[in-house]
Design a protein that fits this description.
The complex is a heterodimer of chains A (302) and B (263). With 302 residues, chain A is mainly alpha-helical. Helix content of chain A is 77%, strand content 2%. Chain A has a two-stranded antiparallel sheet. Chain B has a single domain (2-262), classed as Rossmann fold. The chains are: A mainly alpha (302), B alpha/beta (263). The structure holds adenosine-5'-triphosphate and magnesium ion.
Chain lengths: 302, 263
């Protein structure tokens, strides 16, 4: 159970990283993740299905790389679509995201071969590879945990480096004050597009991993992920205050594990308080409200 | 060097009506010259700077900076030649980022690289740069800019505007939001940077005596036009009272026109 919460927390933490980058760093309220997360899931699952037989059973690191890339690309394309709609039509970010998310519902169905659900019965290369690499050293549950921790550490390292580079600093400044970026002779449209692509590529990556973890991809995977991603980001901000980007990135994962733990608790023991699984969305909404309210109180008193 | 030829800027009022804010304005500023731009509220001073920086598009006319026709360039492209400070101290800096990050961002114009932005070499250089402000900011490089006072923040914005030695420096009432002591400090810094870097500068101000003492040339605007352009001997012999007189005459013409309309 605890491994399950940790693994899920880490996987969905990657999704929340995407939400963090768009909402917090770019100050771009992006709903695209509702489309890019399932797009990554669909792309990853389809890649596993199509390329899997060529690599044989037992998995292969190369195949895993292909699956992860499919997730990144599918999500990144959704982000690119939103950025183009936003910049060319000059509409509100929320509308740009809604348009992409709506369109991608159909695109995701097409990726999944016209069916709303694609189970990975024939083989689950990502899990197979993890198990075969760590075979014997760790129990199946802990090998999954070890693998997701490793993946998250690598991702954290890359992003922490990125946000210390010239491009990353400029991206942070863009969300803060676009004018300061323009004054530096940087094209704000290109930079924002890059940021939105990055955010949604991360969501797509999370989708591809989540599909492998759950054993299937579903066109409805995306429902509610913006809200849960936001709740995650805010929970993290509630427990750790920091202006350092490294800490801000790390606390997204802490928030994500907390969120998954809360959801697990609500599912397992919620019946004692009359809470059913149908109420989880309401709990997510209340969590967001509570986090915002609490952060306001905290700011006043400090 | 700036060359503006018959620049026309207008804003649509809807129903096909146009409010013309710059009326075929021409202005040529030599390299290294400091020009004060004065004129009453709504004269079009800020619009003129906005037109040079590319914040508002020209309806007609040409703007060249250092011999390059940049009339059609976007604001971020022109920023390569233009440094700018506005009236609002919050406008030029990213408040949620550190002093060091802000300086590193401004220290170079153009596309960014995938290289660590503030390695120790850069941090040391920026500490030296910010020490010139004489505000002790060199020991606060890792603090967020939002924690600075308005005066400190405007001084930092000024440094960010000149640090890359742009061809043109545009200042729009950049000390107006500061208390007298801070305004004095920032003005002195402005003077020093302009001299040290030999910058070509356009300074919009409502402070006549400062305009007279700090600039090589004074341009007076009224209703989207240049109504007086004083330099050399003319400028040296001009007094604050003389400038106010010029204003009155320009306003008087307005009153006369109003009377024409009422008849
Ligand atoms: N974006 C805009 N849309 C419509 N009208 C505008 C816009 N910007 C400026 N104007 C109009 O242009 C005229 C000149 O404005 P501008 O800001 O250039 O004046 P100014 O000389 O800087 O005045 P002040 O001394 O008050 O700063 C004003 O009548 C103003 O209403
Ligand atoms: Mg003005």
């Amino acid at each position: 159970m605890i491994e399950g919460i940790l693994v899920e927390g880490l996987i969905y933490g990657i999704l929340a990283l995407g939400v963090f980058i768009s909402f917090r760093i770019l100050d771009f309220p992006d709903l695209t993740v509702e489309g890019s997360f399932p797009a990554g899931a669909a792309g990853g699952a389809m890649t596993a299905l199509v390329l899997g037989p060529k690599f044989g059973t037992g998995g292969s690191p190369l195949l895993v790389a292909c699956i992860l890339c499919a997730g990144l690309i599918a999500g990144g394309l959704a982000g690119f679509a939103t950025a183009e709609i936003y910049h060319r039509l000059k509409v509100h970010p929320l509308l740009a995201g809604i348009i992409t998310m709506t369109g991608f519902y159909s695109i995701n169905l097409r990726i999944l071969g016209g069916k709303p659900n694609l189970p990975l019965i024939a083989g689950n290369p990502l899990l197979d590879t993890v198990r075969s690499l760590l075979n014997g050293m760790l129990s199946p549950e802990f090998s999954l945990l070890a693998a997701s921790m490793l993946a998250v550490l690598v991702l954290f390292g890359i992003l922490d480096f990125f946000f210390h580079t010239e491009v990353g600093i400029a991206m942070g400044a863009l969300g803060d004050n676009e004018n300061s970026v323009i004054q530096a002779g940087i094209n704000p449209v290109r930079l924002r597009t890059l940021g939105i692509i990055l955010a949604n590529a991360l969501a797509g990556l999370a989708g591809a991993i989540a599909a492998s973890y759950q054993g299937f991809a579903d066109v409805n995977f995306g429902q509610g992920v913006v809200a849960s991603g936001l709740a995650t980001v805010m929970l993290g901000e509630l427990v750790i205050r920091s202006q350092y980007i490294g800490v801000q990135l790390a606390r997204v994962f802490i928030g994500s594990i907390l969120f998954k733990a809360l959801m697990y608790a609500a599912r397992s023991w919620g019946y004692l308080a009359g809470i059913t699984p149908n109420d989880l969305r309401l709990i997510t909404a209340l969590l967001i409200i509570g986090s915002i309210a609490l952060s306001k109180v905290g700011r006043k008193s400090s | 060097m700036i060359e503006i030829e018959s620049a026309r800027v207008s804003f649509s009022l809807g129903a096909g009506e146009e409010h013309v804010v710059l009326k075929n304005l021409s202005l040529s500023v030599k390299e290294g010259q400091t020009v004060s731009i004065i004129g009453s509220n709504g004269a079009g001073k800020s619009t003129l700077l906005n037109a040079i920086a590319g914040t508002v598009p020209l309806r007609a006319g040409i703007i060249c900076i250092d011999g390059v026709d940049c009339t059609r360039q976007a604001e971020w492209e022109r920023a390569r030649y233009v440094g700018r400070v506005r009236q609002n101290p919050l406008a030029g800096t990213a408040g949620a980022m550190t002093i060091l990050d802000n300086l590193a961002l401004a220290s170079r114009k153009g596309p960014r690289r995938l290289k660590i932005a503030t390695p120790p070499v850069i941090a040391r250089r920026m500490a030296e740069e910010v020490a010139q402000l004489g505000m002790g900011l060199e020991s606060r490089l890792h603090e967020n800019v939002s924690r600075l006072s308005g005066g400190q923040r405007q001084a930092l914005t000024l440094l960010m505007a000149v640090i890359s030695k742009p061809a043109v420096l545009l200042l729009d009432e950049h000390t107006a939001a500061l208390d007298p002591a801070n305004a004095e400090k920032v003005s002195a810094l402005t003077k020093r940077f302009i001299q040290e870097f030999g910058l070509t500068a356009l300074i919009v101000t409502h402070d006549m005596s400062r305009a007279l003492s700090e600039a090589d040339r004074i341009v007076m605007m009224h209703d989207g036009e240049i109504i007086a352009d004083l330099s050399g001997e003319e400028k040296t012999s001009m007094t604050v009272a003389g400038l106010v007189d010029l204003f009155r005459k320009a306003r008087g013409r307005d009153y006369a026109e109003d009377r024409d309309l009422l008849r």
